Backbone:
């Protein structure tokens, strides 16, 4: 059985200002119109959003290619795609 691959939303990270204590639902399928966050486009795909809880207010670089070894945040994997 082959592993499902997410859609590459973009080959660069999304810089997002997050607020301390707030939860954000990261899109793992790559098909959300509201990248990098989930809009429900994953329905029936086998993908599920992942929660990111902000510990502090800061800029977070969310993975845009959906292939990061860090999962939710960018690790530069887009440079190898």
Residues:
């Amino acid at each position: 059985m082959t592993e499902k691959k997410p859609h590459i939303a973009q080959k660069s990270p999304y810089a997002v200002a997050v607020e301390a204590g707030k939860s954000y639902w990261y899109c793992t399928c790559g098909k959300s119109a509201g990248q990098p966050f989930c809009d429900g486009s994953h329905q029936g795909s086998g993908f599920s959003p992942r929660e990111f809880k902000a510990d502090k207010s800061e800029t977070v670089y969310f993975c845009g290619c959906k292939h990061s070894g860090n999962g939710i945040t960018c690790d530069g994997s887009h440079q190898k795609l």
Observations:
- The chain has a mean pLDDT of 95.
- The two ends are 23 Å apart (CA to CA).
- The chain has one domain: 1-81.
- Residues 1-81 form one domain.
